[in-house]
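Consider the record:
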Amino acid sequence: MRLVYFLKFKCLEKSVSVYACICFYSKEAAVWQNFDKIFNRDPGLPGKAKKKLCGRFKLSENELTAPETLACRFPEAIVNFIRGYQSEHGICIQKDYKKAVEFFEKAANMGNAEAMFESGKLHFIGGFGLKQDYEESVKWFLKAATLDKTDDMREWSSGSKINASRAQYILGLLYSFGIGVNKDYRKAAKMYEKSVANGFTASANNLGSLYAQGLGVEKSYMKSFYHFKMCAEDGHTGAMVNLAKAYFIAEGTELTEPTQEYINEGKKWLQIAAAEGDQRAIAELQISHDLTPPHAMMMKLRKAMEIKKHVKCYPFDYEQFRECVEVLICSPGLEASKNGSVTAQIHMETWKNLDDAMEAFKKNDPEKLVKSLAKAIRLHPKIVEVPDFYKQILEERIESYPNDLDSLVCYIQMETQRGIWRENISKASAQLPDDEYLALSTAYFLLFYKKDAKAALNHIEQALNFHGIFDHDPVSPEKAKKDLCSRFKLTEDEVKAPETLACRFPDAIVNFVRGYEAEHGICVQKDYKKAVEFFAKAANMGNTEAMFESGKLHFIGGFGLKQDYEGSVKWFLKAATLDKTDDMSVFRAQYILGLLYTFGIGVNKDYRKAAKMYEKSVANGFTASANNLGSLYAQGLGVEKSYMKSFYHFKMCAEDGHTGAMVNLAKAYFIAEGKELTEPTQEYINEGKKWLQIAAAEGDQRAIAELQISHDLTPPHAMMIKLGKVMESEEGVNFDPLDYEQFGEYVEVLSLKVYTNLKIPCHVYTSFVKPKFAYFEKNFKEASKNGSETAKKHMEVWKNLDDAMEAFKKNDPEKLVKSLAKAIRLHPKIVEVPDFYKQILEERIESYPNDLDSLVCYIQMETQRGIWRENISKASAQFPEDEYLALSTAYFLLFYKKDAKAAMNYVERVLKIFPEYEHLLYCKIIAVKSINAKSVAYLNSIDQFRDAVPGDNPYVPECHYLKAAYYDSIENKLKFIECYEAGLAAEKKQLPCFLPYRFKGCGLLEMRYLKEISVDKKAYQQERKKIDPKRKFLISENRQLFKSHIDENGVKPFTPSQPLKGGYTYKNDWSTLKKITFKDMNPMKLEAYKDCILEAKIIDWAVFEYCIHTVIEDENGDIQRLTFKNWALSDDIEKEMKQAMKVFRPNVKISIACPYYTGKNEIIVFGSDFIRFDTSMIDKFCHVCGKEAKSLLSCSNCKMAIYCSKECEKLDETYFKHKEICENLKIFKTA
């Protein structure tokens, strides 16, 4: 047992999951560990048992040998108990459990509780003529446990034994482990509670564990703590260990964070338990010897992160959970609409489908079997298991119908649950991309079989983003035909003979119609190849929808067309690069290209290009792109990292009804990411839950799951989630800086000035250098001034690695090691030696042990695999002039020998030889930090490195952040902020291949920085107005409409809309109305908010058509379109228009009674009775940021737009397209 505990704690020391350690124990070992003490099986020899029996009942030797004589002294129940005891322990007779049970059962039937307990015990143990029978054991324990005898105690050995209470304890264990009964934590908890109430404190320890995990009871650390305490104070060493661990991490105590006082109290309990010989206590005492509150906090955080890994039940154990699930769905006396559980309904539906599958199996109906089973699998694939007896049917089914979707689903589920993974999973998913189960199976295939977590994550993100985007073949041919006829006003004959359409439509439309017919199988055989031919003709005539359809079909493939991602990209690019702001096909193409660049499908992965495509799509109003762009901003992928921009992109998308964005927005609210406050608040949490509820109501499964997880979320818990995310962010997206396909073009531009001096291989020069020279020839002088030394070095690394690969192909080991060694010396941290070089390098080092380049390559190969050898320092001594060997020796002393001082001294010596070798200077920083991270020498080493390298060196931002961490540790806030901001500025100078910037500790520093620079609400709102994508889109859209309306109609009175019937007036008292803002409105519902008032401010110039259109902003800074109907109700239209111009302009405050929300970012007002205006602040605020100022600048041309600064004026011109409407704004002067 000591060995087992030792192994467990070694696992914990290496951060292995606690759950994984628990799983090390077999079921039987775990059971007997709990049962051994309480049963005291065979506690001694027959002689010892005889002595105890005689002492207890005052029996003589003769009475034992002739127990039938006891009838004159004891009741029959006691006589039978004694005779059973003799048979159990072999006292004066042969040991025989079968006979013992017969006597015990007679006594038990006469009401003897101890006999009931003994009967249960012997049935549980078995042996000596008695067959082990758990169910019979449970029967007797239940009989004893349900007796109302709280004082039924018998003296036994040195302690008190409680038969009814002991039986309750044993039943708690049986229900916990599912032995002889269905596993049921609720019943286990009830039994433990009864036992504890009867004073059997051993049960308190187990009940405490249930409370800690929330198994069968409502989770409560406080109750858990006091149950452990009760048991520990009664002398149970196991409970002492649990109590100590609760003290260590302040779990259930008054304070929620560990303190030294709690740690000392925990150690006290461990010492008591260790003195009693408890091995767990001894091991825990050793581990916690130097425990401090910060370390305890890390233990608490680790436990919180592992919280989901606790005991798992089998959810389809109908016997165990039926009654609970049925009650949750809807009992007869409940209102289903209020109390029904969606999860329970899904569970019951799964049970139903599994039952249907079983019925089909009995009736030998394979078709119905696979259909029902596939439904169950899709509902919850993680817990549905395919029985072995279905195997033959499924194998025959998949052989006969290899392309049947349901059969594929069932067969893959059957194989994967048995640990069999086949390549056909990903093929099936590619063949049927709309099936969510196959997409999920492919992700698991990549994760568990291919062991490629990145590929799995990439596939999941791809599936989530691409699922449903194309809606390929969403309808039947008849439905598609109906849609086509409705759209183009086609007759039945024209559909059947589309060539006749030439007299009515241009060739582009005719070809599009014919392509659509071939795509959907309308009056012809479905044929994607033919469809693409027609679409291509239409696309070449400028039809954007045909371009999109061509790209879509090439992407999907099938029906005679080979899947071709590159061909797909060609057509999407053709559509996406068109300058059309009113064509949905263009916007969708931009969105899909963003996805393709994000995942590297058909193109090289490029987050910058992805971000540009998303930005174009968002600017055109395709809000689905805003969610993806928000994710890029949150991670700093392809764009400068900005939580604020991320937040408002999520918000824009969520407000347009996208449930995925609602989930992302909710999570941002929970951890206050991108908000004016940097720490979570209850208000933020409530707002996040609101968005989850809206998404959940739309059926979003992620939202439903997140809503359950965040049910009891509080600001401290949210802060822990934020901290956990920060720590994970350091392990985020990592690029390969040597990925030329992804980063080549960006690095080339930055290194232009070095081309004339760089000896680049001919094929490399021809492929990417020469074209760049041609492009930049005119501005070469300017480019040469801006050339990057880091980029130059990077190009040299690429060149040498390319030379090494060419040498490998030509089997030239000498050239290979020479080129590879050059690349290694330039940047040893990023150059990895490929596995296929291994044999060459091993042969090379054996043949030429003193060849310098061979040594460099061999040492790099070994150290990158974690192998350190003594020959490193020998090689450095042999070749003291080689900087790489000097660096390797320094790292050898630092990481292998663990001697920072020796490493430091060595670095100081060799820096005299290589004073400017940046990697040695960086090594010095690490060495000094290991010795004393709070010394002046540490700061000097950082400055020494930074002064020696160019500003775009990949280690420069880290230098600033290390200094920021130093100043943070000594609580110098001003220097901390200064250094952190210097790090942010240095990041902007980095090559793309080193972004997003990652280093250990960056996340925590970012949290500290954001907390220190948190701004007030007014400053935050002003900044928000400059970056909010929704604000940009709605204002730009409004101005485009303004310009097009003036261009088409000139400056003339607007035509009023017809007054609506039904008495659209409002005469009630406005003071009684409830004040609301936009965030009180459900974006998914078209609704009139009766008895409510919305106060807002107009932020753009109005468009006067049949209605009045503008954009408004509420007090929270949220914006919506405003459409006003029925303004001009008098005969003097011109007068009415001038009156409207006076009030429908920026900075006018409005109050709207009973606002009507359309669900499409639009508020409608139906008449003058519903709105009030306040023009008193019309010239007080900047039109861009909303800042109030005494003196404001005005546009030099139109004199209408006013600004607080030149920056806002420039932003209005470029960001909001003021120039396009500037001249036309003069019409407002007439009002």
Q: What stands out?
A: The CA atoms of residues 756 and 1154 lie 71 Å apart.
